[in-house]
Amino acid sequence: MERERVEGMKWIVGLGNPGTQYRDTRHNVGFMVIDELAKRWGISVTGTKCKALIGEGNVGGTKVVLIKPMTYMNLSGESVRSFLDYFKADLADGIVVYDDLDTEIGKLRLRYQGSAGGHNGIKSLIQHLGTQTFDRIRMGISRPQPGMVISDYVLSPFPKAERDKLADMIGNAADAAEFALKATFEETMAKFNR
């Protein structure tokens, strides 16, 4: 089934793991931002295609697609590649939202290129997209205490003490994604990289 390319279509993918047991974990902040944008924009992210949950809508005259890959984190690139091919979407029109151990909890770091830095979801994206250059919103989850296994840490829920910072960070990431619909990513970086 061929799809024609939609000019000016923006897409935002949040990385995470499907399943209720992962819903509130650090690794799922990308999904949390997609949920926040869906609520904000009245988009239902329930369509299943491209190994993802997908929702399409119109935000202030811009066609927007929200994506939650259902492949599990380590294979996120399969879903994003499939989406780009199916929708004839442009990599330059997308933003990837995910958790970042090297950024303090509550803080955002917007970047347009870089290595995976040990993040398996990003490793998969780079592998399937064949480039390290794509716009991204990295959400701080801080590093665990020494001695804690990273995989256990990222799959653990946020403690009560961090919930306020988490809520603010989700709101700010959603604001950044919304701002980027109308502005260049450079302008978005300048505004949201504090």
From TrEMBL:
Location, primary (coarse class): cytoplasm
Source organism, top-level taxon: Bacteria
CDD domains: PTH
Active site per the UniProt annotation: H27
Subcellular location: Cytoplasm
InterPro entries linked to this entry: Pept_tRNA_hydro, Pept_tRNA_hydro_CS, Pept_tRNA_hydro_sf
Reaction catalyzed: an N-acyl-L-alpha-aminoacyl-tRNA + H2O = an N-acyl-L-amino acid + a tRNA + H(+)
Protein family: Belongs to the PTH family.
Protein name: Peptidyl-tRNA hydrolase
UniProt organism field: Paenibacillus agaridevorans
Lineage: Bacteria, Bacillati, Bacillota, Bacilli, Bacillales
